[in-house]
Amino acid sequence: MTISIPLPTATRATEIATRVAGHLSAGDCLLLSGPVGAGKTHFARSIIQAMLSRLEDVPSPTFTLVQTYDTSSGEVWHADLYRLFHIDEMAELGLEDAFDTAITLIEWPDRLGDLRPVRCLELDFSMPDLESDLRVLNVTANGSWDWIEVFDDV
Known about the structure:
This protein is an alpha/beta fold. The chain has 4 helices and 7 strands; from the N terminus they run βαβαββααβββ. The chain has one domain: P-loop containing nucleotide triphosphate hydrolases (Rossmann fold, 3-Layer(aba) Sandwich). The protein is 25% helix and 29% strand. The relative contact order is 0.25.
């Protein structure tokens, strides 16, 4: 089942991300896909900021590949796989272990190949009209997600 959510503003995206953040726990994996500029990093950053107990800069991991954060809900790994092209590069990041022990937010999950977790929440961002700020978020749950109803009334 896929749920489609219009995101007319960045503020609305932050509201949805904050709602999602309140339900995440170790072992949860969010796969964020969509074109450059569609809102993947903004959404991941909003989740992380909502989970932190203090104000902290949350940079894009475009060049570092992975940023980690300690939160009251557990460790959060934010990975941007855009610059990786071979499955061996993924193994070096330690993501397989993080899938079991941390909350993982993965941008450009198509790079994961066989490492893609079976239980994941797919967040696909699109920009239907390049002349407006509107984004659309399509959410698909793979595996068991007992809190997917968080999206029911958005």
